[in-house]
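Supplementary Methods. Inverse-folding protocol.

Structures were first reduced to a discrete structure-token string of length 191. This string, shown here, constituted the complete conditioning input.
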């Protein structure tokens, strides 16, 4: 559970910086592409992406984070919702993410060719992160056709929800199949 809390803390911190940028009238740029995220037979369009390079990584391996996001959709009552896929990847090269297959990092070793990640569904502007999926197995395939990124994510995850009585996140669904495909540009950034 400690890992879950650390991952959530990192995610909230990155969102805080993104929100601060918006407040300062800065434009948060993303790459543009096309793709879908499928969970339990429901498809969501994914059309934006960012790749973050960890500039302080002494590597190898080197750390890259990929964030894929949907455009906002309206839930019918005037509230916009988003979908996010957040993948932390490790590669042997410093300058860019290598093409190839990355396997889930079961033991959190951070070896080259491994990844871990989270998926958030129906997140609203109020940043209701009370439920999410933590990937627990699977693969990510990275291709680089025509200087774009082609990303195929085929994973299994557990769904976590916040329990106010326990004041903790609990697994509410196990072994949920998640598939995501995205092709397009990724805005490059560093952190």
């Amino acid at each position: 559970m400690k890992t879950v809390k650390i991952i959530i803390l990192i995610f909230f911190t990155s969102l805080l910086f993104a929100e601060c940028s918006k407040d300062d009238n800065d434009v948060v740029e993303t790459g543009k592409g096309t793709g879908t995220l499928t969970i339990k037979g429901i498809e969501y369009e994914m059309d934006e992406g960012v790749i973050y390079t960890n500039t302080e990584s002494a590597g190898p391996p080197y750390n890259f984070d990929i964030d894929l996001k949907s455009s906002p959709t309206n839930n019918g009552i005037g509230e916009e919702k988003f979908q996010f896929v957040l993948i932390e990847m490790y590669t042997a090269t410093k300058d860019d993410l290598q093409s190839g297959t990355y396997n889930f990092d079961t033991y959190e070793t951070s070896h080259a060719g491994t990844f871990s990640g989270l998926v958030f569904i129906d997140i609203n502007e109020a940043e209701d992160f009370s439920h999410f999926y933590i990937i627990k197995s699977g693969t990510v395939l990275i291709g680089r056709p025509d200087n774009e990124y082609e990303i195929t994510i085929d994973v299994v995850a557990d769904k976590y929800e916040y329990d106010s009585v326990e004041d903790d996140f609990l697994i509410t669904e196990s072994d949920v199949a998640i598939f995501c495909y995205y092709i397009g540009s990724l805005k490059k950034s560093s952190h």
